[in-house]
Specification:
Chain C: Pfam families: Fer2_4, GCV_T, GCV_T_C, Pyr_redox_2, SO_alpha_A3. Chain C: Residues 177-456 form the FAD/NAD(P)-binding domain. Chain C: This is Sarcosine oxidase subunit alpha. The complex is a heterotrimer. By secondary structure, chain B is of the alpha+beta class. Chain B has helices spanning 37-44, 92-102; strands at 3-6, 11-14, 19-23, 53-59, 67-73, 78-84. The longest helix of chain B is centred in the last third of the chain and has 11 residues, at 92-102. Chain C has six domains: 5-131, Ubiquitin-like (UB roll) (Roll); 170-297 and 426-499, FAD/NAD(P)-binding domain (3-Layer(bba) Sandwich); 301-370 and 382-421, FAD/NAD(P)-binding domain; 508-593, BFD-like [2Fe-2S]-binding domain (Arc Repressor Mutant, subunit A, Orthogonal Bundle), CATH 1.10.10.1100; 672-762, Aminomethyltransferase beta-barrel domains (Alpha-Beta Plaits); 907-1002, Beta Barrel (Elongation Factor Tu (Ef-tu), domain 3). Classes of the chains: A alpha+beta, B alpha+beta, C alpha+beta.
């Protein structure tokens, strides 16, 4: 007989956060993610099922309530939902696609504040000015020696996804850069 | 660090997002099992290692994940053009002139 | 800290821009000295009438301060903030004084004034160019023991710090439209013009204040104010603009491809008590659409006998010390020049009350106006004369002057000599950008020629001498750059009106009169590497005709100053000796860094825990809690073994192995790579990727698969589970995960793009707990819902989905131990909780956790290979005894053709077999070579090597796997493993040491 157990999700970073003038770095607990690959022919069917239009331009995203669809490649999206697992909306879909639950593969860190872009630029070589990386922009890229998915939720707020075992490294790099940038900004 | 134009992301991105993937336009035979020794050697072992313009594969591995092709001058280390996987070798004569015109004297 | 200015003998009241209200103190070689806020160590030392600051690299000659900028070759000091913060070889002309700074001279013993190493100067005929190459060649053996330690002791400048660097360094990527290198009048004008036209601008300058030559050139008036004040006003204007970033104390040191420029910003080097959270330096990695190079020019010294005596310095430096720092370089200052700029310096010094006994000008007919002004000021000018030698040793005391065309010497007493051989445009950054310089024969200088990148040079570094021409050029460059990038921005004109700043005429490159060929004098070309004019001629005489070879043979221009003063002189002397025109000989290439950069800044954040990611599994902390010892596997930390109190590794591993076979063990397999392969063509795709057939694998079944490269050699292996008709769960080795996914993507995207399949890495989605051993089912089943764990329902090599501990699982009945076992995949956030729950049950049942070492032993007992340990990239599935895994009926898979290559089907290939030690106790060394006959003469023929070797507690004997030529046909044969102290006899056997029939797998 199975013993009844109620297990909680354990976040790879726990409750870590760091704040300094102009910047805060916070681990984002929980959340659901789906790695989505869709054939061109079936994009609208999958969009309907998800309740968000899959964006088709590079580096763009689409948002609906708690759900964000981020363009990662020509047939690839990362769906993030803070409340419900998007995979549940795709279980019985009859479409040429691959939906894989990666809720636990990734974890998220939020960088927020006027210094957020400069802090991320400590490890990310992309141009994060608002002209080139506007609100809603998203990209798979690198942060130091880790791969991340970067999503600009607001002008001063970035949502950073990385694989869970890289999370301590990513958090520590962001924390270190935040300390430096904050100190440099108020010299 | 070079900038490489990803034909799928339609913009230049930093080299560290990419991985080099060897010479381009080497097709795997659909009759692989029947290839002669010479055919296999040409397919697998022999590479041109051109001094000058070379056609090579790259993968935007930390970006959109796509493999694509590039024409690069191995002397100047300049990319002349990048194009999607499966597309034919581009005509470089025009691009070459543009590149030359771009350099001031 | 209230040092009165009066005790700084060379500080001139009313001169310079520093305030007497901001006194500081610092020490030099232990002696406390006063300074003013804004001083460099060099200006403060000269204010205190100290010119002798170090000993030279090779001859240990007394040396002083030559310049007032980053080109300084001589005045290298050790700068210490505290015991842990000592930095050698800091240029005194760049280091700003802060209260409490400690400076020490270098390369002298026992003291700066009495240095034993000075013997090298007397012995200098023995130490000419190429001395080391010629002298220390033979005998070879003496190099390590005698020559190198001697050279290292005698040579070298500062002492490396002994303490770990307590500071931190920062780095960041930055992008802009226009990057301007240099904050003189050209750079500032260009920045203003670019910023006003909407461009994102970054302007940087290595100094503490913007202004460049305006620091010394007091004749310039811009927009109605003195030049330096104008520079400060423009700096403030730029700093206030949203689209401009102003970086002081920031050196552009590297110019790389596609306008990628590295800057180093010194953040705390000038602060007395920097805040602990401030990084010491910040590295900027800037990507600019346009670069404007405004790096100015550098004055050259005169190459004459004993031109290195302390107190001899560049004319513009003397002017900087006077006009910016309010410091006179001496009381009685001689002038030696081939260029007009030294006159301007002489006039300023004279007007400040300093005696100028003579201006010695090698030219016969200098500018009339200058001669008239000199006359009006009462300065004697000796035209057509040269300084044949400087007198004095620890400080220059005289100059011996004679007509250039011969005649009597006149000795003139001085306490300083200022000199100018003309100006060298700073083409370093242009050259680094791969631009090609061109020779301006009129003015004997190299200027930018053919550009290789999207950049432009302006002002003095472009050979533009005239002030208004410079400003016009700068404004045009700024506007053009901005408008090229910002087509739609509102256009705004910039107007700057400047007067003064006459163009200086006159140049001398190469040896000055008195130091020509044939003269046995020490006329230094390169101060830092102690290269004289004679050394360069010697190099040519000895057959070095390429300037690149002359440079390396003499080391001219190879010191940390990169020949900023010496390159042109060296080139001219070599050209003369070769009888060639200077441009024919060619300029050597400039390389990064422009000035020395600390390792700290280059490393930046990438140290300690940020050196590289350290990956831990979800269960890591629980494993720590039960005493695991970890090993590094790639970037992963994996539990290696779990010692109980008093156990060593051997005992722990033996216990873990035994427990897994007799009871139950559990193992963290989370690091295995996992790939979800989804789509209607998924089975077809795997059928092409793996050697095995996959089309007929049933849903809920597992298959061990081998993947080759096209050459037929094993690339990776793993177990593949079919979750659904169109969905597979593929596992890879821990280290192979990224490359396997990359290879699969490669084939999918480029060779089989017609296939409807997608690949997703799920390596970190799933935590994996292996539960292995006869009791494994008893342990697992109480926690599982929705899956029948009986062998009938879930036989070996099958899987099912359900829940464990209430969370979803992909539960696989499989084994890498040879025992009945399960691999439990759960979503990673639940991994630790499920592990803890199962571990409690395992422990209660008398089982244990086992680590990677026990895993290795257990699999070796069964002869299961580990790719990368038992294969080395030259092993086929057949060689590994896994020919059964190659689908014989398949018409295509990756490696199908490679496996038919003549070498791969030949007889006698190395094959994977087992080895028993005949003595029953010797554990072989992994990597040990194997021979047929241990008595054969050396070198012996090696027929194979040991790939895996352990003590097997279960078999009670050593076990090993080895790749041996024709191994499958050598069963029972005795072979030998020669080791350093013994030869171990072994017997070839099948690579299975426990449960040969495999019955235990089925429980």
């Amino acid at each position: 007989m199975a013993k009844p157990l109620k297990l909680e999700r354990a976040h790879p970073l726990g409750d870590q956060n760091f704040g300094a003038p102009g910047i805060s770095i916070t681990s984002v607990r929980g959340g659901y993610r789906c790695s989505l690959r869709v054939a061109q022919s079936d994009i609208s069917a999958v969009s309907n099922a998800l309740g968000v239009d899959l964006p088709q331009a590079p580096k763009t995203s689409a948002r609906s309530a708690n759900r964000v669809a981020m363009w990662l490649g020509p047939d690839e999206w990362l769906i993030y939902d803070s409340k419900a697992n998007p995979i549940d909306d795709l279980k019985n879909i009859n479409a040429l696609c691959s939906a894989v639950d990666v809720s636990h593969r990734n974890t998220a860190i939020e960088a927020k504040g006027p210094l957020a872009a400069e802090v991320i630029n400590a490890g990310c070589p992309q141009d994060l000015s608002l002209e080139v990386f506007p609100v809603g922009a998203c990209s798979r890229t690198i942060l130091g020696k880790a791969e991340i998915v970067l999503y600009r939720a607001k002008a001063d707020t970035f949502h950073i996804e990385c694989w869970r075992s890289f999370a301590p490294y990513v958090f520590e790099l962001l924390r270190t850069a935040a300390r430096d940038q904050s100190a440099l900004a108020v010299r | 660090m070079l900038l490489i134009h990803c034909p799928y992301c339609a913009e230049e991105r930093p080299e560290t997002e990419f991985a080099h993937a060897g010479e381009a336009h080497i097709e795997r035979s659909t009759q692989m099992g029947e290839l002669t020794d010479e055919g296999f050697a040409n397919f697998f072992f022999y590479r041109d290692n051109t001094k000058g313009i070379t056609y090579e594969r790259w993968r935007h591995i930390h970006g959109c994940g796509r493999f694509f092709n590039a024409a690069r001058d191995t002397v100047s280390d300049k990319f002349l053009v990048t194009y999607k996987a499966g597309e034919p070798k581009p005509d470089l004569s025009e691009i070459d002139n543009q590149t030359k015109a771009g350099a001031k004297s | 800290m209230n040092a009165p200015v009066s005790i700084q003998p060379n500080r001139i009241p009313g001169k310079g821009r520093l305030s007497a209200a901001d006194p500081l103190r610092f020490t030099f070689d232990g002696k406390t000295l006063p300074a003013l806020k804004g001083d460099t160590v060099a200006s403060a030392l000269i204010a205190n009438d100290i010119h002798l600051v170090g000993r030279s690299f090779k001859y240990h000659r007394p040396r002083g301060i030559v310049s007032a900028g980053s080109e300084e070759p001589n005045a290298l000091l050790g700068i210490q903030r505290d015991v842990a913060r000592h930095t050698p070889n800091i240029r005194a002309t760049v280091q700003e004084v802060y209260d409490g700074l400690e400076a020490t001279s270098q390369n002298r013993w026992p003291s700066l004034k009495y240095d034993i190493g000075e013997i090298n100067d007397i012995a200098s005929p023995l130490l000419s160019a190429g001395f080391y190459y010629k002298t220390f060649m033979w005998p070879r053996k003496a190099w390590d023991k005698v020559y190198e330690p001697f050279i290292r002791k005698a040579a070298g400048l500062g002492k490396a710090p002994v303490h770990k660097d307590p500071d931190h360094y920062s780095s960041q990527h930055e992008h802009c439209d226009v990057l301007i290198l240099g904050g003189g009048i050209a750079g500032l004008s260009a920045a203003l013009a670019a910023a006003k036209n909407g461009a994102r601008v970054i302007i940087c300058d290595e100094q503490a204040t913007f202004g460049g030559a305006l620091h010394f050139d007091s004749d310039v008036t811009v927009d109605g104010m003195d030049g330096f004040s104008w520079a400060q006003k423009v700096t403030a204007e730029l700093a206030a603009m949203d689209n401009a970033r102003v970086l002081l104390r920031t050196t552009a040191f590297g110019y790389y491809a596609q306008n990628y420029v590295a800057l180093i910003e010194r953040v705390t080097e000038h602060l007395s008590a920097p805040r602990a959270d401030l990084p010491r330096e910040r590295l900027w990695e800037v990507r600019a659409k346009k670069v404007i190079i405004a790096t100015g020019s550098i004055e050259r010294h005169m190459v004459f006998a004993n031109n290195d005596r302390p107190g001899i310095l560049l004319a513009s430096a003397a002017r900087t010390y006077l006009n910016h720092y309010g410091v006179g370089v001496g009381k009685n200052v001689g002038v030696y020049t081939a260029n007009d700029s030294a006159y301007a310096a002489a006039f300023d010094l004279k007007e400040a009350g300093i005696n100028i006994p003579a201006i010695v000008d090698v030219r016969d007919n200098p500018n009339e106006e200058l001669l008239a002004k000199a006359s009006a000021l009462g300065i004697r000018v000796l035209t057509g004369h040269g300084v044949m030698a400087a007198g004095g040793k620890l400080r220059v005391s005289s100059m011996s002057v004679a007509p250039v065309n011969g005649g009597a010497n006149e000795v003139i007493a001085v306490d300083s000599i200022i000199m100018s051989g003309g100006w060298t445009p700073s083409v370093h950054m242009f050259s680094q950008s791969r631009g090609k310089v061109t020779y301006d024969a009129d003015k004997s200088r190299f200027v930018p020629g053919v550009y290789a990148q999207d950049c432009v040079s302006i002002g003095a570094c472009n050979g533009t001498d005239n002030l208004s021409a410079t400003i016009d050029e700068a404004i045009a460059a700024g506007e053009d750059a901005a408008r090229a990038v910002r087509h739609n921005a509102k256009q705004s004109a910039t107007a700057i009106n400047a007067t003064g700043g006459e163009a200086w005429e006159g140049t001398l490159i190469g040896a000055a009169p008195g130091a020509e060929a044939g003269k046995v004098v020490k006329a230094f070309v390169d101060f830092q590497n102690d290269v004289t004019a004679k050394d360069i001629r010697l190099a040519v005489q000895e057959g070095f005709h390429s300037i690149e070879h002359v440079k390396r043979f003499t080391t001219n221009g190879m010191a940390t100053d990169q020949g900023k003063l010496s390159n042109m002189h060296g080139l001219a002397i070599a050209a003369e000796a070769l009888g060639k025109d200077l441009p024919e000989v060619g300029l050597t290439t400039f390389r990064a860094p422009y000035t020395p950069v600390t390792f700290g800044a280059l490393v930046s954040h990438s140290k300690g825990t940020l050196f590289e990611p350290t990956r831990k599994t979800p269960m890591h902390d629980s494993e720590v809690a039960i005493g695991a010892v970890f090993e590094d596997v790639g970037s992963w930390k994996r539990a290696w073994y779990y010692p109980k109190t008093g156990e060593d590794m051997h005992a722990a591993v033996n216990r873990e192995c035994k427990t897994a076979r007799t009871n139950v063990g559990m193992f963290d397999a989370s690091t295995l790579g996992k790939i979800e392969v989804v789509g209607p063509d998924a089975a077809e795709f795997l059928n092409l990727i793996y050697t095995n057939p996959f089309l007929k694998l049933g849903v809920g079944k597992l298959r061990y698969g081998i993947m080759c490269r096209e050459d037929g050699f094993i690339y990776d292996d793993g177990v593949v589970a079919r979750i659904a008709e169109d969905r597979f769960h593929v596992t890879t080795t821990t280290g192979g995960a990224p490359r396997v996914l990359n290879m699969m993507e490669d084939y999918l995207q480029t060779e089989f793009p017609h296939m409807k399949v997608w690949l997703t890495s799920t390596s970190e989605q799933w935590a994996v707990i292996a539960v292995q051993g006869p009791k494994s089912r008893d342990i697992v089943s109480p926690f599982v819902e929705g899956i029948d764990l009986s062998t009938e329902a879930l036989p070996h090599m099958s899987m099912a989905e359900g829940t464990i501990c209430g969370v979803p699982t992909r539960l696989m009945r499989m084994s890498f131990t040879g025992e009945m076992g399960f691999e439990i995949n759960v979503p990673a956030d639940y991994g630790r909780a499920v592990w803890d729950t199962l571990y409690q049950a395992v422990e209660e049942a008398g089982g244990c956790a086992y680590g990677t070492e026990a895993m290795h032993v257990l699999r070796a007992e069964k002869g299961y290979i580990i790719v990368g340990q038992d294969t080395d990239g030259t092993v086929t599935p057949y060689d590994a005894g896994l020919g059964w895994a190659v689908g014989k009926k398949k018409t295509d898979f990756v490696g199908i053709r490679g496996l038919k290559r003549p070498d791969l089907v030949a007889e006698g290939r190395r094959q994977l077999v087992g080895l028993k030690s005949v003595d029953g106790r010797s554990v072989l060394e992994e990597g040990a070579q194997i021979v047929d006959d241990p008595n054969q003469p050396m070198p012996m023929k090696m027929i194979g090597w040991v790939s895996s070797s352990y003590w097997s507690g279960n078999a009670q004997k050593p076990i090993a796997m080895a790749l041996i030529e024709d191994g499958f046909n050598l069963m029972g044969k005795k072979l030998y493993v020669p080791m350093a102290n013994e030869v171990i006899e072994v017997e070839v056997c099948k690579a299975v040491f426990v449960d040969e029939e495999g019955g235990r797998l089925h429980g």
